[in-house]
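Quick bug: Metallo-beta-lactamase domain-containing protein output formatted oddly.
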Amino acid sequence: MAATVSVSGGSSSESALIFMGTGCSSAIPYPRCLISPSHPPCHVCFQSLSLPPNRNPNYRCNASLLIDYCESHGNHRYILIDAGKTFRETVLRWFLHHQIPRIDSIVLTHEHADAVLGLDDVRSIQPVSPTNDIDPTPVYLTQHSMTSLETKFPYLVNKKLKEGQEIRRLIITTFVINGENAITPFLLQGLQHFISGCR
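Here's what came back:
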C-alpha cells in the first residue's frame, strides 16, 4: 500500500512524497509464513492476502520513497530513493495510479538487494530515443555501494563506448559521503538533501 503526503496541498502543481514501499527487506507477506506456517501462524502475512494489495496496509513492498518535486515554473522532477527487489511491482501499481511519467534521478541508501536489485527494471520506464539524445538517469550513492554495483550491474555503469555501441540509458555516478558519520548536503534536481552516513 502506498501513501502520499502532499508537501503543500495536493494538486498536480504541488510537491508530494509518495511512499512506494514501507516493508522489510523480504517484503510482506514473507513466503515462508504462507507455505509453511508457524504455530501460531503469522497473522500479518495472512492478513496481507485478505484484501487487494492497493487497499491492504499489511501488503508491503521494499522500503522506497518517490519525491515528486514541483519547481516554481510548474515542471515536476521525480527523485526515487532506493529501487529494491519489488521495484517493478511498485511501478505497475503506483506509477500509473499517481501518473508518474519517469524518474529523473535516483538516490541509493545502501548496496543490499532490498535497495538496488530493481535497478535493471529502471531501464524499462526510461524514455527511449532512436538517436540516443536523452540524458542518462543519474544515480547517487556512496563509493562502497558503487564498488558493489560495479560487480552486480557492470552493464549499467558508465564506461567508454566502442564505435557503434548502444548508449546505456541508466548511468551510475559516484557520490561519496565524507566520513562515516558526516552529514553532507548535496543538490539534486534543485532540492538540497542531507545524508547521514552511518553503519
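Actually, after a second look the formatting is fine. The CA atoms of residues 55 and 179 lie 42 Å apart. Closing.
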